[in-house]
Amino acid sequence: MLLPPPAAHKLTVIPNAPAEGSKDRFLTYVRNDESVIQGFSLVELSIVLVILGLLVGGVLTGQSLIRAAELRSVTTEFQKYQAAVNTFRDKYFALPGDMTNATAFWGAAHATPATCITTVGTGTQTCNGNGDSQVTSADGGTTFGEIFRFWQHLANAGLMEGNYTGVAGAGGSVNEIPATNVPRSKLNNAGWSAIYAGTAATSGGAIAYAVDYGNRLLIAAPSTGANIVNPILKPEEAWNIDTKIDDGKPARGNVIALYWNNLCAAADDGTHANNDLVASYKLTDSSIQCALLFTKAF
Question: Are residues 169 and 98 in contact, defined by beta-carbon separation less than 8 angstroms?
């Protein structure tokens, strides 16, 4: 049985058209303007759905492969920076950033040391550190010039790619900005930080375990106007990296997780404190909760 034709159009049945109810066609008309209105067959619709499914699956698989490559880059970058620092120390007998005669090699950004710390030089111009084997503040105060000259000295020595200002960003004395004064990671939205932390816990212990960090490297997301410290990894991702190069424990070994407070990690006994080091990664949490510290890296 044919459906009623659209208003103001004459319906004509096509000769030799497929039988009514045929799976090869829903319905065929010829309107009075000689145009043909024809539906899709079930076979055609099935093919379209299969193609859409393949496209969606391909996109998801591609995203998974990209993320896996980014996670592998974390280990590669850490090892590259650690090797660069060791090579620097062998060549210049000092740590980058902490070097007392850097200006003799690359020129001074400013003749006055206190002013040099906040001055962006031309080309390789830089500042000296204080030579105490700790990458912190060259003047012993709250201006953390060495943590920025650290990356500039490595680049000046040709031991890493990029150009770095050697000074803090406009947000404050520890304002780290990926690709400007610290390296950008291949891990999306992440950057690297270097500083002597000693046994002090970052942010007064609110997010970091109370362990001896020494001169440490950190991979994390930027924090507006401050240092790189925000979460960038899922607990499972952090555990995976930790397991491959250390012990897989968030508060033990040389790889330490940030955000111990029941976010990235949790104490095995159910209590949560920055000195409770018997802990595990929260592998059931699939949200971004972690950053990683590489302790005593140089």
Answer: no
